[in-house]
TrEMBL record:
Transmembrane segments: none annotated. This is DNA polymerase I. The lineage of its organism: Bacteria, Pseudomonadati, Pseudomonadota, Gammaproteobacteria, Lysobacterales. InterPro entries: 5-3_exonucl_a-hlix_arch_N (IPR020046), 5-3_exonuclease (IPR002421), 5-3_exonuclease_C_sf (IPR036279), DNA_polI_H3TH (IPR020045), FEN (IPR038969), HhH2 (IPR008918), PIN-like_dom_sf (IPR029060). Keywords: DNA-binding, Hydrolase, Nuclease.
Length: 301
């Protein structure tokens, strides 16, 4: 079965927002730099891959996800998007819908969870997946027929590449992040345990559960400060288990159960043209988008 492309949409909208000047304005004078940059990224990706199955996931659960309910400090270090960027997120979703590209968004689950749940569902139907994102969290999802693609850097890796990057296997990524923490998401991890120590512990014990069950073995390991490490783990065991609930990507988010729900559809010509006019996209961008939407023949571009 063809690989489905599951795109971390929020990441690429944020990148476009920072990369392009806000002098790009729509017909109402509102900034549309993030939409223009996201449209360019989307055109290049879809032109290169021509996927039959694709979805773009967005973060709408910025302060109200299930993770915030169990750990209020989750992502508390991040500022909320300004209103000008919030409007552009809406425009990006509208653009995708006009192109016939499925959109995944939910107010209780993050984009990671929507992508993970979609991948899990697609796998049951025989599809592999290409996760388009640079986020290390996605490593925990990769199976034998999946890849992760850092599109901006042109880097791709499969399950084996996770170990080369982090020193742990895909099934250990959530445990690894629970131990060493993730500053991006405001997850502190166990004090004094860095990335190398976390990887070494998981290489020996296999999982966080086994590590906590066999703490008496930790002082005997050839780790610098092994005895102190064991003491910190004993003190922060409950916290580490809580952090794993945060770092583990959910596989039960509300996404379509049928693979065909993520199949690219014919675009909406009238809606797409109205959006292009409102966003003041140039003729070249319009032609690319119309071709990708299937509303003009390729020769016209």
């Amino acid at each position: 079965m063809p690989a489905a492309h599951l795109i971390d949409g929020s990441l690429y909208v944020f990148r476009a927002w920072h990369a392009l000047p806000d002098s790009l304005r729509d017909e109402d004078g509102e900034p549309v730099n993030a939409v223009h940059g996201f449209a360019r990224f989307l055109c290049e990706l879809l032109e290169r891959t021509q996927p039959t199955h694709v979805a773009v996931a967005f973060d709408a659960a910025l302060t109200c996800s299930f993770r915030n309910a169990i750990y209020p400090a989750y992502k508390a270090n991040r500022a909320l998007p300004p209103p000008a960027l919030e409007r552009q997120f809406v425009r990006c979703r509208e653009l995708l819908q006009a192109l016939g590209v499925p959109v995944l968004v939910d107010h209780a689950y993050e984009a990671d969870d929507l992508i993970g749940s979609a991948l899990w569902s697609l796998r049951a139907h025989g599809h592999g997946a290409v996760i388009v994102s640079a986020d290390k969290d996605f490593g925990q999802l990769l199976g034998p027929h999946d890849e992760q693609w850092d599109f901006a850097r042109g880097l791709r890796w499969g399950a084996a590449g996770v170990h080369a990057r982090l020193g742990v296997h895909p099934h250990q990524v959530a445990d690894y992040l629970a131990l060493c923490g993730d500053a991006v998401d405001n997850i502190p991890g166990v004090p004094g345990i860095g990335a190398r120590t976390a990887a070494a512990l998981l290489a020996h014990f296999g999982s966080l559960d086994a590590l906590l069950d066999r703490l008496a073995e930790v002082p005997t390991l050839p780790l610098r400060g092994a005895a102190a490490c064991a003491a910190r783990l004993a003190e922060h065991a409950e916290a580490a288990l809580l952090y794993r609930r945060l770092t583990r990507i959910a596989l039960d988010a509300p996404v379509p159960a049928e693979a065909d729900a993520l199949r690219r559809r014919q675009g909406d010509e009238e809606r797409l043209q109205a959006l292009c006019a409102q966003l003041r996209l140039g003729p070249h961008s319009r032609a690319r988008l119309e071709w990708l939407a299937g509303v003009v023949p390729a020769a016209a571009c």
